[in-house]
């Protein structure tokens, strides 16, 4: 066995172990190279600069103003539905739910 120049020729009885060992070695080498390639491209994508949360859209700003105005109304009540965060609204609006 020590005199073999080609691992594919290695056999024990009728079973050619050399072909199997050769295929496993080739698979491990190719898998490691693909792992390094994917890791390299992932590291390129992670170097993007984050600038914080995006600015709210005009409709989000308008909804925030409406919510602020509703909270300022006298007699505004806070309603909690199914452990949801409290929601402010005008008095008597709960019967619509």
Radius of gyration: 34 Å
**Helix segment tally:** 2
Give the N-terminus to C-terminus distance in angstroms. 83 Å
Indicate the mean pLDDT: 77
Structural class: mainly alpha
Poorly predicted segments: none
How would you spell out the order of helices and strands?
HHEE
Total number of domains:
2
Total beta-strand segments: 2
Shape descriptor: rod-shaped
Largest sheet: 2 strands, antiparallel
Strand content: 5-15%
| Major sheet: arrangement of strands | 1-2
What fraction, in percent, of the residue positions are helical?
Answer: 40-55%
Short description:
It contains two helices and two strands, in the order H-H-E-E.
What would your notes on this structure say?
With 97 residues, the chain is mainly α. It has 2 domains: 7-45, no CATH class; 58-96, no CATH class. Helix content is 45%, strand content 6%. Strands 1-2 form a two-stranded antiparallel sheet.
Pick out its properties.
single chain; 97 residues; mainly alpha; two-stranded antiparallel sheet
Draw up the topology in text.
Blueprint: H1 17-45, H2 58-72, E1 77-79, E2 87-89
Antiparallel strand pairs: 1-2
